[in-house]
Design goal:
This protein is mostly helical. Helices cover 72% and strands 0% of the residues. It has twelve helices and no strands. The protein starts with a helix and ends with a helix.
C-alpha cells in the first residue's frame, strides 16, 4: 500500500504546481497555462540535449540528477499512508537533511558553472537556508515534546484531538512558523518569485540560468516534488491522527491541493519582500516558533 502511495506522490507532484499557477491566473482574470502544463514542459525538456557551460566540470553534470535523487529519497521514506517502516526508524531531522542534500547539489552545480549570476543566487539560497534551519529544528523540538518520539512517522502522527485541545495556541503558532518556512523552501512569494526574469532579483531561478534539457526537467520536477513533500509534512503535522491506509493518503493529497490554492491566493494578493527584509521576517518566524515552545512548556 505504501508503494502505491509513493507512486501516486511521484505522479501527482507537478499537478500541485499547476493548481498554484491556475489559481494565480484566476485572480488575474487570465486563462492560465493549465493544470498539466508542467507535465508537458518536463516531457519536452527530457527530449532535448543538455548544454554545458564552457568551464564547468563533472559537478555541473551530476548536480540536477543528484538533487532530484535526494528529493525522491525523501519521498520514499515519507509516511504517505500514515504507517511506514522507513519513517518509523528514520529521525524527523534526517528527512530535512535529505532535502538539504538536494539543495547542496543545486548550489554546487551553480557555483561550478562559473556564472556570476548563478553564484549570486547560490549565495542568497544558502543565506536564507541558514535562517530557516533554526526554525525547522525548533519546530521539530516542539513535535518531539508533544509526541515523545523523534521518528518521522510518530512526530507526524502523534497529534491527536486531545493534544490539539491542550496545545491549540502553540500549534497555531508553529503552523504559522512552518508555513513561512514552506513558502521560503519552495521559493514562493513573499520570499522569492518563481516567475521573475530579472537576474538581480532571482534566488533559486538564478542557479538554473545555465541549466537546460533533461537537467532542467530534473530541476523542475525536483522543485514540484519538494513542494508536495513539505506541503504533506505541514498537513500531517497538524491533522489529528486518522486511520492509516489509502484513505489517509487521499486526504493528504486533497489537503495539499487546498494548500496549493492558498499559495496561489497569497502570491496574487502579496508582493515580494525586499531582499534585505527577508532575514528580518525569518527571524520573526523563529521567534514565533520559540514562543510556541515556551507556551507549551509553561502549561
Amino acid at each position: 500500500m505504501n508503494i502505491l502511495s509513493i507512486i501516486l506522490a511521484i505522479l501527482l507532484a507537478p499537478l500541485f504546481v499547476g493548481i498554484v499557477n491556475q489559481t494565480k491566473a484566476f485572480f488575474a482574470s487570465r486563462r492560465g497555462p493549465g493544470l498539466f502544463r508542467l507535465y508537458v514542459d518536463i516531457a519536452k525538456l527530457l527530449r532535448k540535449s543538455c548544454p554545458r557551460p564552457e568551464h564547468s566540470t563533472w559537478l555541473f553534470d551530476i548536480a540536477q540528477a543528484s538533487s532530484l535523487g535526494a528529493v525522491v529519497t525523501a519521498a520514499i521514506i515519507f509516511p504517505w499512508t500514515g504507517a511506514s517502516l522507513f519513517a518509523s526508524i528514520v529521525p524527523a531531522a534526517f528527512f530535512f537533511y535529505i532535502l538539504a542534500a538536494g539543495r547542496f547539489f543545486t548550489v554546487i552545480g551553480a557555483l561550478d558553472s562559473g556564472n556570476a549570476f548563478e553564484g549570486m543566487g547560490a549565495s542568497r539560497e544558502i543565506q536564507f537556508s541558514v535562517f530557516a534551519e533554526p526554525i525547522i529544528f525548533v519546530i521539530l523540538g516542539f513535535l518531539v515534546l508533544l509526541t515523545k518520539d523523534i521518528s518521522l512517522s510518530h512526530a507526524l502522527l502523534g497529534i491527536t484531538s486531545e493534544v490539539w485541545k491542550a496545545n491549540v495556541i502553540s500549534l497555531i503558532l508553529v503552523f504559522l512558523a512552518f508555513f513561512g518556512v514552506f513558502l521560503l523552501e519552495n521559493c514562493r512569494v513573499p520570499f522569492d518569485d518563481p516567475e521573475t526574469h530579472l537576474e538581480l532579483t532571482m534566488i533559486h531561478e538564478a542557479m538554473l540560468l545555465d541549466v537546460g534539457g533533461s537537467d532542467l526537467a530534473f530541476a523542475l520536477y525536483a522543485a514540484a516534488l519538494k513542494f508536495e513533500l513539505l506541503g504533506a509534512f505541514l498537513v500531517m503535522m497538524f491533522m489529528p491522527t486518522l486511520e492509516c491506509g489509502l484513505s489517509h493518503t487521499l486526504i493528504i493529497f486533497s489537503a495539499v491541493a487546498l494548500l496549493s490554492v492558498a499559495v496561489g491566493i497569497i502570491e496574487s494578493i502579496m508582493a515580494r519582500f525586499r531582499l534585505l527584509k527577508t532575514p528580518e521576517a525569518l527571524i520573526g518566524l523563529f521567534l514565533v516558533a520559540s514562543l510556541a515552545v515556551l507556551i507549551h512548556l509553561s502549561f
